[in-house]
Q: What sequence folds into this?
DNA sequence: CACCACCCCTGGACGC
DNA sequence: TGCGTCCAGGGGTGGT
């Protein structure tokens, strides 16, 4: 709870903070752990994991190319290059992309798995202590769009009530489980699922297909506004983070329910409830959310 | 097919 | 103070 899990707002803030990369050419790459590159099925046995680890090809990972664009969809970040290649970055739970000023000392703290050196002697490092994140190389943007991003729903920041209604359709799942499904909308994680449901006044246990059209409309708007506000609030924190020392952000301020189980509801004062829903800790107000 | 339990991983919190 | 235990969660996979 101290360090915000990267969901859509954090990845968007990160994307914006990485604009100095645009126009830079990748000179070289240092890979400390190849199992971070295109991790497929996570094997329990480290030897088996290493064996199925991808082609150890630095050049597939943007070496020699010039970075032209940073694109985000949901929690995914794509780094696009002038020769068409596309790198898909997913931060998992603890992943970070750290931009280092030219000739600045290397990032500290360990767990740095890849480091790209750029033509102005700045560097980009991928750090991920828990290693739930990863990097996927694609020869073209189309290849990326047709593989890893193909199963993603629309970006949650622009989620419409029509699309939400359509994807909830006949599903018997809880609305909480549906919101966490990246195929329904891309970018919502545990924090913003709970925050959006609170804002919409909808109980997370509700069967998704039983929501009324009005509730779906309210929920889609709540998802959009919650994420948009988080981007606004999160931007500066992430910029600090990228700037230098990896100081953690203070994202917890502003959360109405996430991490507040047992505390009074900010709206009505009732004690907030907590339970496991869809294998995730879920917090809600049983009075405000119906 | 839809859904769900489990697993990967490490660091921080907490109890004794 | 130190050590053991638990918990956090995105998403892939395999089972029901």
A:
């Amino acid at each position: 709870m101290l360090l915000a899990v990267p969901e859509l707002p954090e990845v968007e803030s990160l994307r914006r903070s990485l604009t100095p990369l645009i126009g830079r050419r990748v000179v070289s790459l240092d890979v400390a752990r190849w199992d971070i590159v295109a991790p497929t099925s996570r094997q329990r046995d480290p030897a088996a994991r290493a064996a199925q680890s991808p082609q150890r090809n630095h050049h597939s990972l943007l070496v020699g190319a010039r970075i032209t664009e940073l694109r985000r969809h949901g929690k995914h970040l794509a780094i696009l290059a002038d020769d068409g290649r596309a790198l898909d970055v997913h931060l998992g739970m603890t992943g970070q992309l750290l931009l280092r000023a030219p000739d600045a000392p290397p990032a500290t703290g360990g767990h740095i798995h890849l480091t790209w050196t750029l033509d102005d002697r700045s560097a980009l490092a991928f750090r991920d202590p828990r290693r739930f994140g990863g990097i996927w190389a694609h020869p073209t943007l189309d290849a990326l769009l047709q593989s890893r991003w193909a199963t993603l729903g629309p970006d949650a920041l622009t989620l419409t009530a029509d699309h939400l209604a359509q994807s909830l359709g006949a599903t018997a799942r809880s609305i909480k489980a549906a919101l966490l499904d990246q195929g329904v909308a891309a970018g919502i994680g545990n924090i913003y699922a709970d925050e959006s449901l609170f804002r919409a006044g909808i109980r997370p246990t509700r069967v998704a297909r039983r929501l009324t059209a009005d509730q779906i409309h309210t929920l889609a708007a709540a998802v959009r506004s919650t994420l948009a506000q988080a981007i606004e609030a999160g931007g500066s924190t992430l910029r600090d983070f990228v700037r230098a020392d990896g100081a953690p952000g203070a994202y917890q301020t502003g959360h109405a329910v996430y991490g507040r189980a047992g505390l009074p509801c900010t709206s009505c004062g009732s004690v907030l409830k907590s339970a496991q829903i869809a294998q995730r800790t879920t917090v809600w107000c049983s009075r405000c959310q119906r």
Q: What stands out?
A: Residues 1-2, 39, 42-44, 92-94, 111, 128-132, 171-173, 177, 278-279 of chain A lie near DNA strand B (CB under 10 Å from a C1'). The radius of gyration of chain A is 20 Å. The first helix of chain A runs from residue 8 to 17.
